[in-house]
Amino acid sequence: MSHPYTLIEPAVAALPLVVDSPHSGLHHDEILPMSATPDELLAGWDAYVDELFGHAPQVGGTLLHARFPRWLVDANRARDDLDPDLLEGQMPYPLHPSDKARRGMGVLRRLALPGVPVYACKLPAMFAEQLLQRYYDPYHAAIAGLIDAQHARFGAVWHIDCHSMKSRGNAMNIDNGAERPDFVVSNRDGETCSAEFVEVVASCLRGLGYKVSVNWPYKGAELIRAYSDPARGRHSLQVEVNRALYLDEARFARHAGFATLRGHLDQMLEAVAAYVRSEVAALR
């Protein structure tokens, strides 16, 4: 793969707004010892999320989305968040597996679904490191570079990390069996962005008729943790979209709700852009 991500520059005057979708890709070059079927692997795919948030460049934002699949490399995990049970041999640095890695959902996935291994055998540690260098490192370099450049230019930056979620949690989730809201907006319980930024997004979505939860069942993960610092004007927010709003979850096919949802997310991005413009003006 020549580039592990796609970067779309602003189509109008640039704002310090970065929108990324780390789980919307399906492409890779590796021949792998698979156990999970292609359909089982799709469970972790944030289907069409890059398209749902595709209006970002039209409001002055920069849009970044991964081309590689989440089951191969999950850019929304820490680089050392690896389950040792997935590996044959030792990585060249200490591992710090989180609870999610121990449940099969680390930076390299062990499970595609509950009880469904991704791979038919363990991965050599050297190969695991090559995957991280090929996919994880360039994606993180890109998002970090965008956020740093916008912050340097404007004195502040706003970042939205975009995902989709199953309409109900499964056994790999903390809300197993629970029906989920339409959207979950997360800032790690106040750590990664201002409460005002959360409110701009959540209130817009609620005004459009959606049920919105804040920081439950998702609090936000690595991509908003790693590059945020609200005290210095670096605000990162995670948004999860309920797949049932736009997708036949069994077939991963867009249904009639896709166009409506896309239009509403266009409106949300317009509201975010207006907020960012006002904040930039206040800084001046």
Automatic annotation (TrEMBL):
Pfam families cross-referenced by the UniProt entry: FGase
Q: Which domain of life is it from?
A: Bacteria
Q: Which InterPro entries match?
A: N-FG_amidohydro
**Name of the molecule in the record:** N-formylglutamate amidohydrolase
User: Which organism's genome codes for this protein?
Assistant: Cupriavidus laharis
